[in-house]
Write a structure and sequence with these properties.
Blueprint lengths: L18 E4 L23 H17 L3 E4 L16 E4 L2 E4 L10 H11 L3 E4 L10 E4 L2 E6 L5 H11 L2 E6 L12 E4 L2 E4 L6 H10 L4 E2 L2 H5 L6 E2 L3 E5 L3 H9 L3 E5 L2 H4 L10 E2 L2
Bound molecules: arginine.
């Protein structure tokens, strides 16, 4: 029988155990406007934030992943966003250098954690916000610039880790980090094309012909700030269309509510550093 006219089968997805680093949100607050989501006049419910963070951590553990935690430092309101602390690969870490002064002191705290955990750790020589702007897809590392991370840091990470870096320019201030504009899903991605400069969009179209394009509505729920382990996609519960899209591509959506953190422009992925 000819199969020429059958639709391509949905790929079989498999989870692999991951190691994550998270920071409890005991100092979490929105005290300045570091991105368009942040409005210091909108109060944060810290008890609810802590509850949402604990559910996220417990969700990872229930999925079979290991979660380490770093001690929060008092008066660092964004330290909960552990993904920004640096980038780790094959025993080496490049620690962050934050663009906004309100986050500067986080860099030393994360660098100390990486060093104590046994990573050969160097400080970034240019503005660099870690996994917020660096995402691993298969053999390459996609790297955002335009708002926070400087392209010089992309080059430093390539030198230090030996990774192949693909630099992508971000253009929408609401999607100021790569991890709110794009989400790795196994060997493909989901993304918001409008968040990228023309050349970056062309690069992504060429590399990932089966990429999922999210709706503007889901992107604004920070749907792309999701985390995939090869099978499960932990994503914000409000992003229902995105959940249906990943399910149609063979993944299992795992919805969580991280609404308090959206008030700071953050979500699932920002709160989770992956120790590659
Ligand atoms: N308020 C934080 C900032 O503007 C949010 C960081 C979110 N992290 C992320 N990886 N997108 O720096």
């Amino acid at each position: 029988m000819s199969t020429a006219f059958l639709p391509a089968p949905t790929p079989v997805r498999t989870a692999t155990p991951r190691r994550y680093l998270m920071c409890p949100p005991t100092s979490f607050a929105v005290t300045y406007t570091g991105n368009p989501w942040m409005d210091p006049s909108t109060p944060v419910d810290r008890d609810l934030a802590l509850h949402q963070w604990q559910v996220l951590r417990d969700t990872y553990r229930a999925l079979g992943h290991r979660v380490a935690t770093i001690d929060p430092v008092a008066d660092l309101p964004d330290m909960v966003f552990a993904a920004n602390g640096g980038f780790v690969r094959d025993g080496r870490a490049v620690a962050a250098r934050f663009r906004n002064p309100q986050r500067a002191a986080e860099a030393d705290a994360y660098a100390a954690w990486y060093a104590a955990a046994g990573y050969a750790t160097v400080a970034a020589e240019a503005p660099f916000e870690g996994e917020g702007d660096l995402l691993v897809v298969g053999d390459v590392v996609l790297a955002g610039h335009g708002f926070r991370t400087d392209p010089r840091a992309h080059r430093q990470v390539a030198e230090v880790t030996g990774a192949e870096i693909v630099s992508l320019e971000l253009v929408d201030p609401r999607y100021y980090h790569l991890d709110v504009a794009l989400c790795p899903l196994g060997d493909t991605i989901a993304y918001l094309p409008a968040a990228f400069a023309d050349a970056a969009r062309a690069e992504l179209e060429g590399r990932y012909p089966d990429a999922i394009e999210v709706t503007e509505e889901d992107a604004a729920w920070l749907a792309l700030n999701a985390l995939c382990d090869g099978l499960h996609v932990v994503l914000p519960v409000q992003a229902e269309t995105f959940a249906a899209q990943v399910a149609a591509a063979g993944f299992q959506p795992v919805p969580v509510d991280v609404s308090e953190f959206r008030k700071s422009g953050g979500g699932v992925k920002c709160m989770t550093a992956e120790l590659h």
